[in-house]
């Protein structure tokens, strides 16, 4: 469409899949009528969740991250065990090595009026604090390193993140998860509203994270990116999560048939 090959648009970064680090056991979001969701996510794996709008994918991710109440079931992070507390919060999830990029970066994913530096570091300020004070120069040096690593284009770390392009905003949102040292990344429509070039950079970054041993749960409505980036794929339809299978075993027609309930 724009003179790019598939390998340029979906760069392949070799990565090794390891042990299970996140498991959902009969997880049902409060207010949902669907069956409990069962899923295993492994270290170094990119696992895609497909489905049409309203299928329940976003609600599932939000429940895993503590943004939605859970009616029943368990979220198990292998390094810490089941997270069963009814009042578990996103702060708890962050402390257990999880991070999330919201599908709505303008309202929920970023603080648009705040600086790039603030958005990158707010979830983990300990490296820059001393006796209750924030060491701004030390943070500035660290943030500049992240900007270079993530290829974020901005005038300075103090520029309001709302002034950046959509692609650069999304890279800031992803960078926040890396800065907080998340091991399990929950990505909800991470390339929505960004240009083709920025999408390719985000795909490459996701592949590099998997190569570093991060586990990625990737929700998207854009089938080509799920088929081009993910290792396995599961389809959600009407609140029910299907079995995850290797991407090579799926075709776009099969995915849409299952997403619309025409095929089990």
Walk me through the structure:
With 264 residues, the chain is an alpha/beta fold. The protein folds into 2 domains: 179 residues, 3-Layer(aba) Sandwich (Rossmann fold), CATH 3.40.50.300; 71 residues, no CATH class. The chain is built from 10 helices and 13 strands. The strands form 3 sheets. Strands 3, 6, 9, 10, 11, 12 and 13 form a 7-stranded mixed beta sheet that branches. The chain has a 4-stranded antiparallel beta sheet with strand order 2-1-4-5. Strand 4 and strand 5 form a beta hairpin. The longest helix has 16 residues. It starts with 5 loop residues before the first helix and ends in a 5-residue tail after the last helix.
Quick structural gist:
This protein is an alpha/beta fold and 264 residues long. Helix content is 34%, strand content 22%. It has two domains: 1-97 and 183-264, P-loop containing nucleotide triphosphate hydrolases (Rossmann fold, 3-Layer(aba) Sandwich); 111-181, no CATH class.
């Amino acid at each position: 469409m724009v003179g790019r090959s598939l390998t340029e648009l979906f760069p392949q970064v070799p990565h090794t899949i390891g042990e299970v680090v996140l498991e959902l056991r009969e997880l049902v979001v409060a207010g949902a009528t669907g069956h409990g969701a069962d899923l295993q996510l492994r270290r170094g794996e990119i696992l895609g969740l497909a489905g049409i709008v309203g299928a329940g994918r976003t609600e599932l991710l939000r429940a895993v991250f503590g943004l939605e109440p859970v009616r029943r079931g368990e979220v198990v992070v292998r390094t810490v065990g089941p997270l069963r507390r009814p009042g578990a919060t996103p702060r708890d999830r962050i402390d257990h090595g999880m991070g999330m990029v919201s599908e709505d970066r303008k309202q929920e994913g970023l603080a648009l009026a705040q600086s790039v530096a603030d958005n990158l570091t707010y979830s983990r300020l300990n490296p820059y604090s001393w006796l209750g004070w924030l060491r701004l120069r030390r943070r500035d040096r660290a943030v500049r390193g992240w900007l270079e690593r993530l290829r974020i284009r901005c005038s300075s770390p103090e520029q309001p993140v709302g002034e950046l392009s959509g692609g650069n905003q999304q890279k800031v949102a992803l960078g926040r998860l890396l800065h907080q040292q998340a091991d399990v990344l929950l990505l909800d429509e991470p390339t929505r509203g960004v240009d083709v070039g920025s999408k390719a950079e985000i795909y490459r970054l996701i592949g590099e994270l998997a190569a570093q041993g991060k586990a990625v749960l990737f929700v998207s409505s854009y089938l080509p990116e799920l088929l081009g980036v993910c290792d396995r794929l599961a389809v959600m339809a009407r609140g029910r999560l299907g079995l995850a299978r290797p991407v090579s075993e799926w075709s776009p027609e099969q995915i849409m048939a299952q997403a619309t309930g025409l095929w089990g």
